[in-house]
Design brief:
mainly alpha; 3-stranded mixed sheet; 5 strands; 51% helix; elongated; Hid-1/Ecm30
C-alpha cells in the first residue's frame, strides 16, 4: 500500500507491488485491518492511476484463478482467489463514496473502456466484475461441489439448496458455505452504490451494477440465483434436541449465509430502472424480454421502467410466476418458522438471563420477505388469505408490533408489518376471517387481556389503540396504516366487545378534538379514516355491533362538535393548551373536557393516558415541519439500525361521492396543499424532503367510496409562526369539513338516542317499582318475624322493621339499563327506528396501498441500513465511508 500511494504511476509489470495483495493475506481480517481507509483514500485521491491499476490487476488475477480447472484441489489458488475477492470488497465502497453522488469515480473505474492488463483488449470493468461475481457463486469446486464425470464446465448454474425449483440439496461442504459468504459480500458491495446516493436521488439515479444483474438476459442464471437465494434464506437448520444457545457473539456460518442471501434477494427484487429522461437512451444490458407470459405476471409494485426496450427485472418477473401450491407451502411454512423462532427467542429463559438471543433471529428480514412476496405475487396473497393459519400469522405479526413499538430500533419492523396488515386488509375474505375468536395462548402473559371472548378484530383494534396511545414520534408513519387497517375491516365488524368499543370511541374523541385537528395537516386524514369506520358501521353493521352503537350514542356530542367546528375556537384551544404545556412538564389532554360522563365511566384508564400521550405529539411548537416526508435511517456504529424519520402514510387523497354526502349540497372548495409531518430530531435526522403523497390504487369497479380528504392546495405557514408550524386557514377547513359524512351518522345516533333514553327511563321506572315492592315485601316479612318472636318471648318489647333489610331488598333490584339497551340494539326493532340511509349508503371499497417515490426511498433506505448494520460485524465493510442514503451515528 505504501508503494502504490507514493509512486504516482507504477508500471503493469511491477509484480512486486501488485502480487502481495493476493499472496500475503491469510484471511479477511488481514485485508480489513491492514488496508485502512486512510491508505485507500490516499491512493485514490493522489495516485488515481495506481488505484485503477490495482483494481484491474486484482480483478485480472481473479479471472485467471476462476478459470483454473480443479480449483478445489489447489488450496493455494483458492486462497489467492479469496484474497482477490476480499481486496475488491475492501476497495469498491471507496469508489462509490467519491463525488457528491458517487458517479464520478464509478464512471472512471467501472464504466469507461480501457485495455485489460495482460491482453490489451478493451473491456468495461463494471460489466465484467458483475458477471464474474455471479459466476463465482456457481464455480465448480469453489462454491458448488466439483463437476461430476463428464462435466467440464468451470461454472455450474445449479440451485444450492432444496426448496423451490430443487428437490434435493447439493451437499455443500463448510468450505463452500464460507466461500459463498465471501462472494455474496462482494456482490452486496458491488451493488451498494445506492448507499452513497442522496435519498432524493436513489429513485432517479441508476444503479448500473444492479441493473446488469436484474435485467440480465441469461434466464438460467437468474433462475438459479433466485432459487438459490430463496432456498438458502429459508433453509431450516434443525437443532434437534440441542438447546439453541450461542455461547459467543460470533454468528453461525449457515445463519450468516442465510442473512447475506436474503439481503441479496431483497436488493435484486427491489431494484427498478429509473425513468429515462426525454431524448436520452437508458443504459441497458438486458435484451427485451420475449416471454409471452410476462405481461400477465408483472408484479403489482412495479414502477414504469422508462426503458425503450420495455425490459423488466427478471427476478420480479420470475417471483410473480410462482404458482404451485407446494411452492407457496414452502414459502409460508418457512416464513412462519422464522417468525416463530424469533418470538420464542424473545420469550426464552436463556435470552432473558444472558440478554442475548439464543440464535440469530430474523423477524425484520422475514417480514420484509413476506411483504415483497405479497406485493409481487397475487396468487400468493390469495393462498395466504385462504390458508388455515392466516389468523395465526396475523396474531404473530401483531405480537411483533406490540413487542417492538417502544424500541426505536424496531420501528422499521413495526412499519413493515403495518404495510403487510394494511395490504391484507384490502381483501374482504381476510377482513371477514378476523371476526373469528382470538386465542390468546399465542401471546405472553403480559400481553393477554382479561376478556376471553375477543375476536381477532378486537385484538387488532386494541393493538392499534395501544400503539397510538404510545405517541412515539418515530411511529407517526405507522399510525395512518393502522387507522386504514381498522377502516378497511370496519364494513365486516361484528360483535365488537365493550372494551374495544369504548377504546375506539375514545380514540375518535382525541382525533376529532378541534385543537388536535389543526395541530398538524395530516391529522385530518386520521379523522377521515375514523369517520369512515363509524360510517360503515352505521350503514352496514349497526345491528351486529350493539355495544359499539351504544358507545357511539353516548358519545354523539363528539360528532355534533365536529359538525360545528370553528377554526378560531380551535386556534384558541390549541394556543391555550400549548401555553399550559410550556408552563408545566405534563402534557394536557386535548378535548377531554367535553367527554360525556357515561363514556368516562366505561372507558378504562388507558383511554385517558392515550389522550394525553397522543395529543402531546402536537403540543410542541416546531415539532413538525412542512413536509419532509422521507425517512432517513440512523445507524449506530455499534451495528444497530434504527427506524427512518417518519413520513406520510402512503395513501392517496380520498374523495367523497355525492351519494355519500347525503343531502348536503355539492360544493367546490379551494384546498390546502397537504403538508407532511416531520419528527423531532432526537436520534433520527432526515436526509431529504421527497413528498410521499402516494397514488391510490384501485382494484374494484363501481362507485367511489365515501370519504373526504383535503385537496392539496394548503397555504404555507406564515413567517411569523416559523417554517415548522402548520398554520390552518378557513380555506383549508372548507376543503374537508363539508365533505365529512357526518349527517347520516348523527341522524342515526339521534334516532337511537331517543329510544335509548326511553328504554333507560323504563328500566329505571321498573326498577323503582320493583324496589318498592321488594321493600314492602321485606317490611311484611319483618313484621311476621317480629310477631312470631313476641309469642315466644312476651317480655321482649316489639321491634320495628329495620332500615337495613329494606335497603338490602332495594339493592337486589338492578336499575342498570345497559343490558336491556344492548339487547334492543341487537334486535330488529332497532332497524325500524333508523332513518332512511339509502341516499348516503357508501360503497364497500377498501383504501388500497399506493406506491410513491418516497415510500420506495423509505423501503430502499431500510434495506440498505439493515445491510450496513449487518456489515458492521465482523469487519465493518462500509465503516468510515461517506454514506449518503441514511445517517450514520458514530458512537462516542
Amino acid at each position: 500500500m505504501l508503494e502504490t500511494g507514493t509512486v504516482l504511476s507504477l508500471p503493469d509489470s511491477a509484480d512486486d507491488a501488485w502480487s502481495p495483495f493476493w499472496l500475503l493475506p491469510e484471511g479477511p481480517h488481514d485485508v480489513f485491518s491492514l488496508v485502512t481507509p486512510a491508505d485507500i483514500r490516499r491512493i485514490r485521491d493522489h495516485a488515481q492511476e495506481n488505484f485503477i491499476k490495482l483494481i484491474d490487476k486484482v480483478f485480472d488475477r481473479l479471472l485467471i484463478l476462476k478459470a483454473t480447472k480443479d480449483l478445489a484441489k489447489n488450496p493455494l489458488n483458492t486462497r489467492q482467489l479469496l484474497n482477490c475477492v476480499r481486496i475488491l470488497t475492501r476497495l469498491v465502497p471507496f469508489i462509490y463514496e467519491a463525488g457528491s453522488d458517487g458517479t464520478v469515480m464509478e464512471d472512471i473505474v467501472f464504466w469507461t473502456q480501457r485495455p485489460r492488463p495482460g491482453s490489451g483488449a478493451d473491456y468495461t470493468l463494471g460489466r465484467q466484475i458483475v458477471s464474474a461475481t455471479v459466476d463465482l457463486l456457481f464455480t465448480s469446486g469453489f462454491t458448488v461441489p466439483p463437476a461430476t464425470v463428464g462435466e467440464d464446465a468451470a461454472v455450474r448454474y445449479t440451485i444450492w439448496e432444496n426448496g423451490i425449483g430443487q428437490t434435493s440439496s447439493l451437499g455443500s461442504s463448510k468450505e463452500h458455505v464460507a466461500n459463498r459468504i465471501e462472494v455474496l459480500r462482494l456482490l452486496l458491495v458491488i451493488c451498494s452504490k445506492t448507499m452513497y446516493v442522496p435519498a432524493a436521488g436513489s429513485v432517479t439515479l441508476p444503479n448500473r451494477a444492479l441493473h446488469a444483474i436484474a435485467y440480465n438476459s441469461n434466464k438460467r442464471m437468474v433462475l438459479c440465483l433466485l432459487c438459490s437465494l430463496i432456498n438458502t434464506s429459508l433453509r431450516d437448520r434443525v437443532q434437534g434436541w440441542a438447546i439453541p444457545y450461542r455461547s459467543s457473539t460470533a454468528m453461525d456460518p449457515n445463519d450468516e449465509l442465510s442473512l447475506h442471501a436474503m439481503q441479496a434477494l431483497f436488493i435484486l427484487l427491489d431494484y427498478q430502472t429509473p425513468p429515462s429522461k426525454a431524448g436520452s437512451e437508458p443504459d441497458s444490458s438486458a435484451d427485451q424480454l420475449d416471454d409471452t407470459e410476462a405481461d400477465s405476471n408483472t408484479p403489482s409494485m412495479v414502477l414504469v421502467t422508462g426503458t425503450s426496450t420495455g425490459a423488466q427485472n427478471l427476478f420480479r418477473v420470475f417471483i410473480a410466476k410462482l404458482h404451485r401450491t407446494q411452492e407457496f407451502d414452502y414459502l409460508h411454512t418457512n416464513i412462519m418458522r422464522l417468525l416463530d423462532e424469533s418470538m420464542r427467542a424473545n420469550l426464552s429463559i436463556l435470552a432473558s438471563v444472558t440478554k442475548q438471543p439464543t440464535k440469530h433471529a430474523m423477524p425484520q428480514e422475514a417480514a420484509i420477505l413476506l411483504w415483497v412476496l405479497l406485493e409481487n405475487n397475487a396468487p400468493f396473497k390469495d393462498y395466504l388469505v385462504d390458508h388455515n393459519s392466516s389468523l395465526r400469522l396475523f396474531s404473530v405479526l401483531l405480537y411483533f408490533m406490540l413487542n417492538g413499538y417502544n424500541d426505536p430500533a424496531q420501528a422499521g419492523l413495526v412499519r413493515t408489518i403495518s404495510h403487510i396488515l394494511h395490504y391484507l386488509s384490502e381483501d374482504s375474505r381476510f377482513a371477514t376471517r378476523l371476526m373469528q375468536p382470538f386465542d390468546q395462548s399465542i401471546l405472553p402473559s403480559t400481553m393477554r387481556t382479561v376478556d376471553a371472548s375477543l375476536t381477532h378484530a378486537d385484538f387488532m383494534i386494541n393493538t392499534v389503540f395501544t400503539l397510538l396511545s404510545a405517541s412515539k414520534p418515530y411511529l407517526v408513519p405507522v399510525y395512518s396504516n393502522l387507522l386504514l387497517l381498522v377502516r378497511n375491516v370496519s364494513p365486516y365488524l361484528t360483535q365488537v366487545s365493550q372494551t374495544t368499543a369504548d377504546k375506539l370511541v375514545s380514540l375518535f374523541d382525541i382525533i376529532s378534538s378541534p385543537a388536535f385537528i389543526i395541530s398538524e395537516s395530516y391529522h385530518v386524514r386520521w379523522l377521515i379514516y375514523l369517520i369512515e369506520v363509524f360510517d360503515y358501521v352505521v350503514h352496514y353493521r349497526a345491528v351486529d355491533n350493539p355495544r359499539l352503537m351504544y358507545s357511539m350514542v353516548k358519545a354523539r356530542s363528539y360528532f355534533t362538535r365536529l359538525r360545528s367546528f370553528n377554526l378560531d375556537k380551535a386556534r384558541a384551544e390549541l394556543s391555550q393548551l400549548r401555553e399550559k404545556k410550556s408552563m408545566a412538564d405534563s402534557a394536557r389532554t386535548i378535548g377531554r373536557s367535553s367527554m360525556p360522563r357515561e363514556i368516562s365511566q366505561n372507558t378504562d384508564d388507558s383511554a385517558a393516558k392515550a389522550a394525553e400521550s397522543l395529543s402531546s405529539l402536537s403540543l410542541n411548537d416546531g415539532a413538525s415541519a412542512d413536509a419532509p416526508s422521507l425517512e432517513a435511517n440512523v445507524i449506530s456504529e455499534g451495528g444497530d439500525a434504527s427506524e427512518p424519520t417518519k413520513s406520510t402514510d402512503g395513501t392517496a387523497s380520498p374523495a367523497l361521492s355525492e351519494r355519500a354526502r347525503g343531502k348536503r349540497p355539492a360544493a367546490n372548495y379551494a384546498a390546502d396543499k397537504e403538508q407532511q409531518p416531520q419528527q423531532q430530531q432526537q436520534q433520527i435526522q432526515p436526509r431529504s424532503s421527497v413528498s410521499e403523497a402516494q397514488p391510490e390504487r384501485s382494484r374494484s369497479k363501481g362507485k367511489e367510496r365515501a370519504g373526504a380528504e383535503p385537496k392539496r392546495k394548503t397555504k404555507t405557514a406564515s413567517s411569523s409562526a416559523g417554517p415548522k408550524q402548520f398554520q390552518p386557514s378557513e380555506e383549508w377547513v372548507f376543503s374537508w369539513l363539508p365533505d365529512l359524512p357526518l349527517d347520516p351518522i348523527i341522524a342515526v345516533l339521534d334516532a337511537l338516542a331517543t329510544q335509548v333514553d326511553r328504554i333507560a327511563e323504563e328500566v329505571h321506572r321498573d326498577a323503582q317499582a320493583a324496589a318498592a315492592a321488594a321493600a314492602a315485601a321485606a317490611n311484611a316479612n319483618s313484621m311476621q318475624t317480629l310477631g312470631g318472636d313476641s309469642k315466644t318471648d312476651s317480655q321482649q318489647p316489639p321491634q320495628s322493621p329495620t332500615k337495613q333489610s329494606t335497603d338490602t331488598a332495594i339493592a337486589a333490584v338492578t336499575s342498570d339499563p345497559t343490558q336491556t339497551i344492548i339487547h334492543w340494539l341487537s334486535s330488529d326493532a332497532m332497524l325500524q327506528v333508523l332513518p332512511d340511509l339509502e341516499e348516503s349508503m357508501p360503497e364497500i371499497r377498501p383504501r388500497v396501498q399506493g406506491l410513491s417515490p418516497a415510500l420506495v426511498v423509505w423501503f430502499r433506505s431500510l434495506l440498505w441500513s439493515i445491510i450496513y448494520a449487518a456489515g458492521m460485524k465482523p469487519f465493518g465493510i462500509w465503516k468510515n465511508t461517506n454514506v449518503r442514503l441514511f445517517v450514520v451515528k458514530h458512537s462516542v
